[in-house]
Amino acid sequence: MRAAQQGDRVSYKELLRTITPRIRQLIRRQRGFAGTAEVEDLVQDVLLSVHTVRATYDPARPFVPWLLAIVRNRLVDGARRYARISRREIYVDEEDVTFSEPATNDDIGDVEDAAALHAAVRALPEGQRQAIELLKLKELSLKEAAEVSGTSVGALKVATHRAMSTLRRTLGKRRE
Amino acid sequence: MNTNDLIEDLARGLEPIAPLWRPGRRAAAWSLGAAVYLGVLVVGMSAVNSHTGGAGAGFWVSQIAAVVMGLLASRAAFASVVPGLPQHSRVWAALAALVWLGTLVAASPRDFDWATVLAASHEWICVGFIVVGGAPLMLVLAVMLRHGAPLSPATTAAFAALSVGALANVGACLSLPHANSAITFAWHGGVVLALVAVAALTGHLVFVWSAARSRSIVDGRAGYGT
Fold first, then answer.
1. CB B17 to CB A73 under 8 A?
2. Are A52 and B214 in contact (CB under 8 A)?
3. pLDDT tens for residues A152-175?
4. Do A17 and A73 fall within a single domain?
5. Any residues with CB less than 8 A from the CB of A149 and at least 6 apart, and which?
6. Is the pLDDT at A107 greater than 60, yes or no?
7. CA of B70, closest CA in chain A: separation in Å?
């Protein structure tokens, strides 16, 4: 951690990689009922907290008590958060994904002809097609898609909107 | 984002950072600044030293007790934002608060009348001095404490308020004449207690984990999430 405070990225990465399994083990022991995703959330929360308050580490003092204090604190906060959320949540076992009325399912899952959809996508202008491929088919985030395409997030949003309008129009005409 | 990606991002974005000073040193630095500020404030008050010349030993003992309490409470506040530190400084600060109140009670006249004490409306000036005069001290202290880890926001805020209240109380005692220690006990003690209570209740609004901010910085740079 001393090296990390001096900006040594390699040592810092090594430190985080070393402590992560121990943090995970500790959280699993404390939160035996937690699922994998919840445990990983807590692990990441601890890592972010360690990163945020790394200036509070005194190189003259042992590292483990410092780390354990943070882990304990994040676990307590996590438990409070969990209790707060579970008080407000209502669990619903079985619910229809869509409503049974056909009118409410107008556009959803209505394109039966995959070939027509592919053709409509292929017919889109280059920018719009790329936006659809990155965001809707590869399911990248806006930022990731912007990095890949080399355009701005705003331009991607516009291209996606236009592409969706064009597709709706094209496929709508085919249905008629 | 998976944990390995997070580690990569945290390591990639690492910048050198100076370790915080130890709690005692930070408390000393803040207290020094507070002493200078309160000194200026006291000198600025027209009634300065008009009464302290004739003040008895009890008055000075309670002022010294308040200063010690202020120092110990600020140390406890700074220690509370450092993970893994033993927390005995909290006990010392709490004991110092009891000693301060004890000195005030000891210096009070035996036959004081509570109704008169509570009706001392001129004490509202002291309340204003402690609350308004102490506000800049509290602000600076809060900013300094926010550089630490918000492990127990209520405790941190309570000790910060105790420290500010103690030192501002000394400023008020030196600036304005008081008929007796019973008035100081009731009014100053009450204000400090109220400040501590308010701080403890609102501390969680001031001292919060900035992990979310850290996460957003990571997201913004590495392009995760939208």
1. no
2. yes
3. 888 888 888 888 888 888 887 765
4. yes
5. A130, A131, A134, A156
6. no
7. 23
